[in-house]
Every structure is written in structure tokens, then in C-alpha cells.
Specification:
Blueprint (H helix, E strand, L loop, with lengths): L5 E7 L6 H9 L6 E7 L6 H7 L5 E5 L5 H11 L4 E4 L5 E2 L3 H10 L6 E9 L19 H6 L9 E4 H7 L10 H10 L4 E12 L10 H18 L1 H7 L1 H21 L3 H13 L5 H7 L6 H14 L2
Parallel strand pairs: 1-2, 1-4, 2-3, 6-8
Antiparallel strand pairs: 4-7, 5-8, 6-7
Helix pairs in contact: 7-8, 8-10, 8-11, 10-11
Length: 311
């Protein structure tokens, strides 16, 4: 059989409420030379029934009993036959022209390894729910910009298959930042392309989503940066120690402070402990982080007392 142009990889776990919507947004693409690889991560709801009811030759379903979204995506990568790879979670969607526009942009520059686009967070109030088009990161400070944090969600890009394989796929030891590490591996060295249109939708809904664990998100992102810099000392040398300190430990403490000032001590505490025990931060910062070593009730009492003294 002739290989498809694009392989779309969709991990799922108990996705009966949303997976049909996600699959429909793939099957409706104007670029229809693709395969859709769905990896069921051991669903116990109606997800298998929904998948078995679908009749489209472009759809392939695999079952992976070993839980973990990175393992599911890596299985999809092993089965993928397309020259280009796109990822779509089972509760998110694309504009019907997503694949066509992303493929056109990426192939227009043979040196580019990844194209990324704008997206919209559906289900969030206020500015966070507005359509967002990211800036152009193909700039002289690209490494610093990408090390500043994850710049696009996993379903808002199209990547050359060879680039993902060379990057080693998804790190199964990371829980939240596995895609961020992959994007750094793929994008920091080689050219990337921006498609300045909103072509992807992230659906926020009731239930547990990984990013609800703020401390884990901060710490996993920090670990991804350390893993990347450990494998790419030339990037660390290029940026210099002060910049690296700012982008890693400095960013970690900044995010911990943001949680602290919001009153979210539960999530601020593990972030503070990470920095404090490693000896990072100014004297004032260390004094602010020090109560994170105490029991939570005592930490709260100290914060409350300080607020009363400094209203």
C-alpha cells in the first residue's frame, strides 16, 4: 500500500464524551491523504465500542494496556507510515483546513522541521478563552524563547516524521512536559515555521486534566529544560550561565511566587522546596520559601500573620 502523506496520532483513555467529535474533525480534513492512528490506553467506558463502530479505511485502532499518554504516542509513532506527523488528543479538534495549511507551509521550506499555528482554549472565560496566534519564534533568540516555556499545544503543529524519530520520541518519565521536551529537541536547532491562523481548538471540560496539577506542571517543565540542556551543552554555552540560570531556576521560582501570591500554598510548596534545597534564590527569596519546609498548617499561619502585619 502507498504510505499516507500524514499520520495523525490520537491517544485516548475513557474518552466516550468527546472522542467522536475529535475523530470527526480529522475525517473532515480537506487534506485527506492521512491515516488516523488511535491508541486506546485501556479505556473502561464506551470508547472501544465507539471506535469499533467506525468504518473508515484511514482509521487504525491499537490497544495499549500499559497506561501513559507518552507510551501511547510512542506506539502510534512506531506504527506511523506518513512523512509528516500530527497529534490530536481525543477531546480536542482542528479546523477543517488544518492539515492542508500546515502541510503547505512546512513543505514550502524544505529545511523546516515543524510548523505551528494559533489555537483557542474553548470553555475558559475571559482573555484565556480568546483566539491566540503565537509570535514568530524563528528569531536570533529562538533558543531562549523556547526555553522560556512551552510555546504551542501538542495539537497545534505538524512535524516531519524523521525529526521526531531523531529526537527520540516522547520521554515516558515526564508526565506533563513530555511534548515540551520533544518540541525543544525538534525546534531549537532546526528551522520552524509559523502559520498565523487559529486552526486548533483546546477543549477545557469537567474532570481531571493534567495541567490542573500546577506544581507538577512547573516541576515537570523545569525537568524537561534540564534534560534538554544536558543533551545540548552547546545551547547552554551559547546562552551563557546567567541566561540559563534565569530561564531555569529563575523561571521556577517566578512560577512558585505566582502560586504563592495567589494563595495556592499546596502547589507553591513543592516548587519552593525544589529551589530552596538546591540553594537557589536571593536571601529575601529564601526567607519567603523557607516555611515550605514546615508543615502546611504552620506555613499557612506564617503567611496569615505576615498578611495581617502588612495588609
Amino acid at each position: 500500500m502507498t504510505p499516507p502523506l500524514v499520520s495523525v496520532i490520537m491517544p485516548c483513555l475513557n474518552g466516550e464524551r468527546h472522542i467522536q467529535m475529535a475523530i470527526d474533525s480529522v475525517l473532515a480534513q480537506t487534506l485527506n491523504n492521512f491515516e488516523l492512528i488511535v491508541v486506546d490506553n485501556g479505556s473502561t467506558d464506551r470508547t472501544p465500542e465507539i471506535l469499533n463502530s467506525l468504518n473508515d479505511p484511514r482509521l487504525k485502532v491499537f490497544t495499549l494496556r500499559e497506561r501513559g499518554v507518552s507510551r501511547a504516542r510512542n506506539l502510534g509513532l512506531r506504527e506511523a507510515r506518513g512523512n509528516f506527523i500530527a497529534f490530536l488528543d481525543s477531546d480536542d479538534t482542528w479546523n477543517v483546513a488544518f492539515l492542508e495549511k500546515m502541510h503547505t507551509a512546512l513543505t514550502a521550506n524544505p529545511q523546516a522541521v515543524l510548523a505551528y499555528c494559533g489555537w483557542q482554549n474553548l470553555g475558559l472565560p475571559g482573555p484565556r478563552g480568546e483566539p491566540f496566534i503565537p509570535p514568530d519564534y524563528e528569531i536570533p533568540d529562538k533558543a531562549a524563547a523556547l526555553l522560556g516555556g512551552c510555546r504551542w499545544p501538542i495539537h497545534a503543529c505538524l512535524t516531519r516524521h524523521t525529526a521526531i524519530i531523531e529526537a527520540g520520541g516522547f520521554n515516558t518519565h515526564l508526565i506533563i512536559a513530555e511534548d515540551y521536551l520533544l518540541w525543544m529537541e525538534v525546534s531549537v536547532i532546526d528551522p520552524i515555521i509559523r502559520v498565523p491562523e487559529v486552526l486548533a481548538q483546546y477543549h477545557h471540560h469537567d474532570g481531571v486534566q493534567a495541567t490542573h496539577n500546577r506544581a507538577l506542571a512547573v516541576l515537570d517543565t523545569f525537568r524537561a529544560k534540564q534534560l534538554f540542556l544536558g543533551r545540548h551543552p552547546e545551547v547552554a554555552t551559547q546562552l551563557g550561565p546567567d541566561k540559563i540560570e534565569s530561564l531555569t531556576w529563575g523561571k521556577l521560582m517566578e512560577q512558585g511566587d505566582a502560586l504563592h501570591w495567589k494563595g495556592d500554598l499546596n502547589n507553591a510548596r513543592p516548587v519552593f522546596r525544589k529551589a530552596l534545597l538546591a540553594g537557589h534564590g536571593s536571601t529575601a527569596a529564601k526567607l519567603r520559601m523557607l516555611p515550605s519546609l514546615l508543615p502546611l498548617w504552620l506555613h499557612r499561619a506564617i503567611v496569615t500573620a505576615k498578611e495581617r502585619l502588612n495588609p
